[in-house]
Amino acid sequence: MKITINRKGYFSAAHKLYNNYWTKQKNIEIFGKCAYPNYHGHNYEYIVSVKGLINPETGLVFNLYDLKKIMKKEIEEFFDHKNINIDIKEFSSINPTLENIIIFIWNKIRKSIPKYFELKITLYETINNFVEYDGK
Ligand code: NI
To answer: So where are the chain's domains?
Structure first.
């Protein structure tokens, strides 16, 4: 019997979506306001979902207090109030889209969660726009 435990986290960060090989016009056609040259911010929300068996000794799948510490260290302290394009070297050459950011977050969290747990991340850029990734 596997249970999924979830914890939500938040960070605010700036970005710009841009392909340097395209004209400014085409960038705005594809990325909309996210292509504006002077960057803009989003209040990102994300959910970390850890799925596994209940430990009979504790009654827990994964300790939420430990998950809170992992999320604070790996994600919130890393992203909050940063300019993703400029401050985070991995995004100097890839667009900080929801898709690319969620893979990056999943990889960072995965390192701290034992392999026998399944891990899924959900990442919201706005109330309406969100992505999910489970490593597959
Ligand atoms: Ni944007």
So the answer is: 2-133
Q: How far is the CA of 72 from the centre of ligand 1 (A)?
A: 23
pLDDT of amino acid 75: 98
Q: What is the pTM of this model?
A: 0.95
- The full DSSP string for 89-108 is GGGSSS---HHHHHHHHHHH
Q: How far is the CA of 123 from the centre of ligand 1 (A)?
A: 13
Ligand 1 centroid from CA 129, angstroms: 11
Rounded CA separation 74/93 (Å): 21
Beta bridge partners of 15: 40
Is position 42 annotated as part of the catalytic site? no
Tens of pLDDT, residues 41-87: 999 999 999 999 999 999 999 999 999 999 999 999 999 999 999 99
Say which of 29, 40, 81, 90 is annotated catalytic.
81
Superfamily of domain 2-133: 6-pyruvoyl tetrahydropterin synthase/QueD (3.30.479.10)
pLDDT bracket for residue 102 (50, 70, 90): very high
Q: Which residue has the tokens 């392999």?
A: 115
Is 34 part of the annotated catalytic residue set?
yes
